[in-house]
Write the structure tokens for this entry.
Amino acid sequence: MPKITYREALNQAMKEEMERDDSVFIVGEEVGLFQGAYKVSQGLLDKFGEMRVRDTPIAEEMIVGLAIGAALAGLRPIAEMMTFNFSLLALDQIVNHAAKIRYMSGGQFSLPLVIRGPGGAAFQLAAQHSQSLEAYYAHVPGLKVVMPATPFDAKGLLQSAIKDDNPVVFIENEVLYGAKGEVPVGEYTIPLGAAEVKKIGRDVTVVAHSRMVLVALDAAEMLTKDGINIEVVDLRTIKPLDEKLILRSVKKTNRLVVVEEGWRFAGVGAEVCDRVVVNAFDYLDAPPVRVTGADVPMPYSRSLEAAALPDAKKVVAAVKKVLYSS
Amino acid sequence: MKKSELAHLLYQMMLIRRFEEKAAQMYAMAKIGGFCHLYIGEEAIAVGAVSTLKDNDYVVAPYRDHGHALARGCNPNKVMAELFGKADGLCKGKGGSMHLFDIKRRFMGGYAIVGGQLPIATGIAYAIKYRDRKEVVLCFLGEGAVNEGAFHESLNVAALWKLPIVYLCENNLYAMGTAVERASAVADIYERACSYDMPRQRVDGMDLLTVREEVGKAVKLARQQRMPSFIEASTYRFKGHSMSDPARYRSKEEVEQMKAKDPILIFQEKMLNEGLMKEEEITKLDNKAKKIAQEAVEYAEAAADPESASLYQDVLV
């Protein structure tokens, strides 16, 4: 299997879906002539033309609203948010419109819409460019929220998201864009709502999503020296959550650590813990431990930023805490 | 225009008027809940404008949408049942007064967020151009919406990309309780469109035939040249913003003055004066409108409530 980058995997998913289905188009800032702010849509304008790869003014509410209208009229838009930080400007369209039109219309309309772009922190981008907003979108009925951690998952999940007849919030990760991995040639889908065990283990279930999956895998490496064998579960889809797989893992290991980049209060990890505590209480040998971003706006300074984010060391400490070992 | 066509336009205005009067009664009896925004006084705009459209054109409306839905041919029984929140309502009781949708008639909503419908309407127009089709979008808005950011973002791209859309602004002088001069630095609302170099004008929204003529031209421009337009239709709502509004922000004298410009009376007089219709014919149409409105209430009353399972239906496909 060819080894390509996460961004190339996304590019392939979009290109191939656009080749298969002429109702699929991309709309967003710099997606065309600039080849994509992060080069995810490289080459697509030349291949498909400006109606199908539409450069827009800086107007996020319009970008998402236009995509909604186009979806109502039978197209399958991919609306790019240059980063999900800017999606907040389109929050009304995403939450009040995209998520609700099907329901309010009594099921008359479906909105096969993908809203995609990078989320999470990169390096010293400061408070307004570093947010993990998946908890916001996962909270809203009527949206699916998908977050791939690997190039393989990125292509398969994006193809599924484009084929899905619902609004899908597809949050990528800027730091992962350059990561390489094996990706099949051609069409394949990964079902939305299916988590995956990225590393089979025995001692602790570590649930993570997006970049934190790689952080958890790094921690797994470090922990082998202490003879600790963790199982890493990659959520892949935040909503709908794969509760079954998570519970199956915890029933095996009896311990849970949840890692996320986002803020602790009402974060995705809180939902995961709720599901496990309510449904597998008797299987737990310790209370769940969460590793999260610090509940602060992201500071600019390099050392402060590092302190504000989870890393492999913090995950190792959490695993040892849940094992009551040190 | 043929006499039968004129009679039909008059009937449609009467149907909306009698329907809205019934809705007001039903609301007062708590058969309709939530917010109920009546279209009384503005009938000439919905009827005149929608009459210029083809069946496969699209209509987008804000929350004061009963008149637009009826003008577009939505079944009055289904609309009233929706207002009553019944399972057999236009949207299965899931939307209510502010969220009327009818996919068969390309009535694309019914939106409660002021200005929220503008980018969506613009996106439908984008899809029309994408598919190289000849349809047009008629997007209604109130004058309160022109100060929302979504207005600016939408009209800008409609003009920039030459989209087949007509933005029809019903200026009834009050955005809820705020008079237009208190909200807009430029109170000549149609002038807002100059920022986008868009064809724009103000028309008398109380005169159905004028609305029909001018919107007809704009629709033709959109269809044939993919040129968007902005039309401000001057009108007045004879009732408050919604059923819960005692409308203390405007004087009784003003309301009475405006009622003298009732679009239905204006149209009737024209028909009589020009010998196009007789008094009896007009009365007959009004009686039909009253009957249909009454039947809609009876239909809605008799209809069943949604089953509890429907709570979780249609969240996702």
Summary: The first strand of chain B starts at residue 58 and ends at 62. Chain B has a mean pLDDT of 97.
